[in-house]
Design goal:
The chain has about 140 residues and is of the alpha+beta class. The protein contains 3 helices and 5 strands, in the order αβββαββα. The strands form 2 sheets. Strands 1-2-3 form a 3-stranded antiparallel β-sheet. Strand 4 and strand 5 form a beta hairpin. GO terms for molecular function: zinc ion binding.
């Protein structure tokens, strides 16, 4: 965990993770800042709900390390909920939808399918032979 704390503390002040809607109240986007309070957390980045006073106070708060976990869980959930055939690309640590690649016309012949299987099997055999050769040299 020390390495993640170190990387979070060495991150430039303007460089922050993507901001999401507050996980607790869902009313507003979270905000981020760097702790200026003297002590062990000085210089640490945190994320919090801006609704931190009044009758509708939310008070949600996370240091950067746990916030990364929230983003990863959301990213994984979004990928699982995605319909088949939807492709994504990484942008700034988050996945964003991308159009599917252009499809090549399918070969309708049995020879095309068999040729692909032969090529895959040949590749597997070559990999096995190379692995055995490398193990033999050890």
């Amino acid at each position: 965990m020390a390495s993640s704390s170190t990387s979070a503390r060495s991150r430039p002040s303007g460089d922050h993770l993507p901001l999401i809607m507050c996980p607790d109240c869902g009313e507003v986007q979270v905000e981020t800042n760097i702790s200026g309070v003297p002590g062990p957390n000085m210089g640490r980045r945190f994320y919090k709900c801006p609704i931190d006073s009044g009758p509708n106070k939310c008070g949600w708060f996370k240091w950067e390390e746990p916030y990364v976990g929230i983003l990863r869980r959301r990213q994984t959930s979004a990928i699982r909920a995605q319909p088949r055939g939807v492709h994504q690309a990484e942008q700034g640590g988050m996945l964003v939808p991308q159009p599917p690649p252009a499809r090549r016309p399918q070969q309708n012949t049995a020879w095309g399918t068999n040729w692909m299987m032969i090529a895959l099997m040949a590749n597997t055999v070559v990999n096995i032979i190379l692995t055995i050769a490398l193990i033999g040299r050890m």
